[in-house]
């Protein structure tokens, strides 16, 4: 029951923070949206700011941590990893759109980026966590590309670290760029990553 209440609270509050931003959400709003009493809310967070912090950690930082999504046994090639990566991005974005069914994809994407930026102004550790996720992402690509070189899938003369950074930049660049249009397009992400893959493969 407690796990169910926590999930209900987190989803309801995250939805409100996405739509209205932090200052536009009251505890009464969270009570109404979640169906939980204030006492139940305070069981999981000492105040609204604490709840916002925990929700960002849960829905943004933890979900974007590549090490919790993919292990080396999940893929056999760089090409496989690209498919897995894009699939994971699509699933994350689809879960966001499910939370905001009345919002267009472009508005939902903008709200997501805006909420992350807002959280980073409140909580210095969000910036640290986010950088940690980016560095983990780069490290994972480095490992994948090293294996690709060893297996003969990827050219030996590539700069592995810079290539890894390019894959990561494609994702983060499209996330930001597409948040101003129709939201992150997983097909476009796959296309861009495959273009880079075609450039470095044997």
Question: How would you portray this structure in words?
Answer:
- The protein is mostly helical and 202 residues long.
- It folds into 2 domains: 2-54, Orthogonal Bundle (Arc Repressor Mutant, subunit A), CATH 1.10.10.60; 62-200, Orthogonal Bundle (Tetracycline Repressor, domain 2), CATH 1.10.357.
- 74% of the residues lie in helices and 0% in strands.
- The chain has 9 helices and no strands.
- It has helices spanning 2-20, 27-34, 38-44, 48-61, 78-99, 105-122, 124-150, 160-178, 186-200.
- α1 packs across α4, α5 runs antiparallel to α9 (186-200) and α8 (160-178) packs antiparallel against α9 (186-200).
- The model has no long low-confidence stretch (mean pLDDT 91).
Give the topology, please.
Blueprint: H1 2-20, H2 27-34, H3 38-44, H4 48-61, H5 78-99, H6 105-122, H7 124-150, H8 160-178, H9 186-200
In short:
This protein has helices spanning 2-20, 27-34, 38-44, 48-61, 78-99, 105-122, 124-150, 160-178, 186-200. The chain is mainly α.
Report strand %: under 5%
CATH topology (level 3) name of the largest domain: Tetracycline Repressor, domain 2
Largest β sheet strand count, sense and barrel closure: none
What is the CATH top level name of the largest domain? Mainly Alpha
Q: Structural class, judged by helices and strands?
A: mainly alpha
The backbone outline, from C-alpha atoms, is elongated
**Which residues form runs of ≥5 with pLDDT under 50?**
none
CATH architecture of the largest domain: Orthogonal Bundle
Distance between the termini: 53 Å
Q: Radius of gyration, rounded?
A: 19 Å
Average per-residue pLDDT, rounded, comes to 91
Q: What count of domains describes the coordinates?
A: 2
Number of strands: 0
Please provide the ordered H/E string of secondary-structure elements: HHHHHHHHH
Helix content: over 70%
SS element count, helices: 9
């Amino acid at each position: 029951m407690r796990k169910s209440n926590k999930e209900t609270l987190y989803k309801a509050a995250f939805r409100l923070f996405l739509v209205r931003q932090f200052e536009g959400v009251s505890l009464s709003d969270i009570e109404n949206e979640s169906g939980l009493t204030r006492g139940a809310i305070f069981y999981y967070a000492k105040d609204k700011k604490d709840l916002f912090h925990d929700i960002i950690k849960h829905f943004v930082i933890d979900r974007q941590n590549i090490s919790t999504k993919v292990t080396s046994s999940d893929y056999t090639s760089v090409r496989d990893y690209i498919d897995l990566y894009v699939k994971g991005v699509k699933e994350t974005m689809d879960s966001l759109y499910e939370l905001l069914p009345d919002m267009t994809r472009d508005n939902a994407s903008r709200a997501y980026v805006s909420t992350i930026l807002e959280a980073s102004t409140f909580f210095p550790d969000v910036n640290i966590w986010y950088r940690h996720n980016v560095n983990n992402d780069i490290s994972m690509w480095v490992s994948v590309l090293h294996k690709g070189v060893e297996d003969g899938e990827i050219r030996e003369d590539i700069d592995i670290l810079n290539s890894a950074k390019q894959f990561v930049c494609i994702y983060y660049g499209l996330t930001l760029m597409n948040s101003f249009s129709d939201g992150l397009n997983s097909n476009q992400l796959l296309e861009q990553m495959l273009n880079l893959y075609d450039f470095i493969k044997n």
